[in-house]
């Protein structure tokens, strides 16, 4: 029975409590654009980070193959120089040998025979004979060594040239692979740079709009604001306070509640209507009143058909200026209310008295 009574009590309390709609803070068209750009920037940066390892790898592979080809080509170049030198050396030695052969052919063995017959004794004869034999053998050996070195160089050159020929397709493949990877990487990088430029331009546009807004709010008129503001509508409660929300600044308070749609909006303090403007993707229709002493107030999300004042008109504290609406970027009927002091938003809760 006690449990049943508690249940009935809670149910009655819930039925009696009015439902308060908490609207989502309105982003202007430019703010939404900036948010979208920043989201795309984040995606492009992530894409660039994913491409970076493959880009670096393809570049390293290309450099490695290119280095091997270059080293072998430099080695071949050195061998070509060595081969030319050996050919010159071989040519000279062949000329010496040919000269001796001509001498032998012309004089027969007379030359060597004379040389041997000039020996003083048998020991000298055998020494000269060994010299003749050694001289012939040495010339022959020298020619063979030069020829052998030249052939070795030519063989090594052929091996290295074969390696270069085998690596050329790999080099071409690595070049094409890196070229494609570089093109993809540069495209994403260019897209990111373009987005960064758009972000900068959009931020500048938002800053300029804010300056125009604050310039309108700084109009002092003939009033001297007291710094005490009245509750700007009939009923309702703060459904979304001033301060940071979801990573961004909510520069005013949202006033919502059951049956608030169509309720009158009052000038929170006396002043001059400095701006009436439409922002379909953000505030909807909104009004700014300049109160003097650096104070101004902003009222947003009403419909143009409910606005009862004109720009430049003087209004008194508590005068009806429009009706609560659901215009612009809004999830439910409410009044978005801001107070600015010397061009800077302040917390309305610190200034408003109900």
Model description:
The longest helix has 96 residues, at 122-217. Helices cover 56% and strands 18% of the residues. The strands form 4 sheets. Strands 2, 5, 7, 8, 9, 10, 12 and 13 form an 8-stranded antiparallel β-sheet that branches. A hairpin with a 2-residue loop joins strand 3 and strand 4 (248-250). The chain has 354 residues and is of the alpha+beta class. Residues 1-26 have low confidence and may be disordered. The chain has helices spanning 2-16, 29-107, 110-117, 122-217; strands spanning 229-230, 237-240, 243-245, 248-250, 253-256, 264-266, 271-279, 284-292, 295-302, 314-315, 320-323, 335-341, 344-346, 352-353. It is rod-shaped and about 150 Å long.
What would a concise description of this structure say?
With 354 residues, this protein is α+β, with helices and mostly antiparallel strands.
Average the pLDDT over all residues and give the rounded result: 76
Task: Report on the biggest sheet.
Answer: 8 strands, antiparallel
The count of helical stretches stands at 4
Distance between the termini: 43 Å
Structural class: alpha+beta
Percent of residues in β-strands: 15-25%
Number-wise, the strands total 14
